[in-house]
Amino acid sequence: MKILKICLVFFLLVGCQTNKTEKESGNHIKLNINPKNKESILLSSFVDSIEFIHLNKAGNEIISNISKVQLFNNNIFILDREGNAIFVFKKNGSFVKKIQNTGRGPGEYLQLVDFDISSNGIFLLDYPNNILHYDIDFEYIEKYNLRGLYTFSFKCYKDLFWTYNEEGSENELFHFSAINQEGDTKDRFIKKDFHGKEYQWHIGSEFNIHDGNLYFSPLFDNRIYKTNGHEVEKAYTIDFGEYSFPNDQNIFKENIFSQNFNYAIKQNFWITNKYLILDFLYDSERKFMVLDKKNQSIQYGLVDNDLFPDYRFLPSWNDRNTLIEVVDAFTINEFFPFLRNEVSCLESLSEDDNPVLILYHVKK
Hints:
By secondary structure, the protein is mainly beta.
């Protein structure tokens, strides 16, 4: 009996260790994930509440496709890449303004692909390397040219533009660059192990700012880095064991949605006060991992939305302690019609309305 109790305690301890992180050198943390895990995560274990926002139309102002969302000063800023415009809404969903300054003159752009908001104003990325600077009321200030660069995404941090480098750039041998307002490359980070793309996948959040630090990660890469503006260090490594994609192979030559793709890959990552949250793709399923940064415990698997049963959980962005999902009106009416009865702002939702934002307020 005593031996049986000892064995039982041993197996319980081993089981607990599978849900703990491993401390690597310095502050670097290794996250061990078994992508075949069949268990579910309760949404209520890391999310306090869910808020629905119906983005109202003003006249015929229809959003073609939401490519990015940021919250700032009780306003919602939305990038519509297809419409080549920025939409601004109040937190209650009421329409404020639309910015669509196409052209070649001062304050105008040709192809809007990204934007960022900071205390210094609003910055729009005109592909491939022009950044237009406006104040918070969208009054034009000036234009910066990031010479020799091709990028679809960037982040403003410590008076520098941090860019994710695409092929064709002078900096294409590195995943990231830090560039000043004069267009001079101040530094390059994370040398690329491969070149060439057969698939132009662009899924994932490359940048997160939290607690004064910038966190960044190459697309589909299992390493997350951080910087305070001076030194860069590895913050997290995601280890999928035998299902980790080999570092020396080119993920952009693989069809990651094929049934023959047998690896797990990180997609988005979000950092809040309490958690590191990321999603990963395995066997055509989108699963999630939640790290409690205080006690270093992790849980992973499919998410069970117990806060709003029968609805999914598919966020794409975060803003501080809020995860943001977008769902089009047709999808709600076709696949989740019960939402119109249970969420007051969706009662009159028609299929040709603007999309709906869903805000997941993460526990602090």
